[in-house]
Specification:
Blueprint: H1 4-14, E1 26-32, E2 37-41, H2 54-66, E3 71-78, H3 88-97, E4 98-107, E5 113-117, H4 118-121
Parallel strand pairs: 3-4
Antiparallel strand pairs: 1-2, 1-3, 4-5
Protein name: Cytidine deaminase
Catalytic activity: cytidine + H2O + H(+) = uridine + NH4(+); 2'-deoxycytidine + H2O + H(+) = 2'-deoxyuridine + NH4(+)
GO molecular function: cytidine deaminase activity
């Protein structure tokens, strides 16, 4: 799979981040089971609990706009020098909508990235109610 398209989309969405408090821009792009791509950025609020992460923004858009539920891949980028992993809440949300073999692409650029599997970053999700 060519991850450059997803990484490029995540970078585009990072530029739209609304981060007046943390100044920590994050962009994400997901690839659904139907090969649709949805992107998102983090959107802060002065009441930090009302903030939404880029990963969840992209996933919620896919579900609300097209009813997509199986995510084949997600690319995540930020302005940090290292790789930015999804937060705990995002890991839980990703696991809810992840295809069994989902790829988590953590990127610095189109050329510099690592690929993880869900079990690598979230080995024991809450999945029983």
């Amino acid at each position: 799979m060519d991850y450059s398209i997803l990484i490029r989309k995540a970078m585009e969405y990072k530029e739209r981040a609304y981060v007046p408090y943390s100044h920590f821009r994050v962009g994400a792009a997901i690839l659904t089971e139907n090969d649709s791509i949805f992107g998102g950025c983090n959107i802060e609020n002065v009441s930090f609990g009302a903030t939404n992460c880029a990963e969840r923004t992209a996933i919620f858009k896919a579900v609300s706009e097209e009813g997509k539920t199986d995510i084949k891949a997600i690319a995540i980028v930020s302005d940090e020098d290292g790789y930015t992993y999804p937060c705990g809440i995002c890991r839980q949300v990703i696991s809810e909508f992840a295809a069994e073999d989902i790829k988590i692409i953590l990127a610095k650029s189109e050329e510099e990235y690592i690929v993880k599997e869900m079990k690598d970053i979230f080995p024991e999700p809450f999945d029983k109610f």
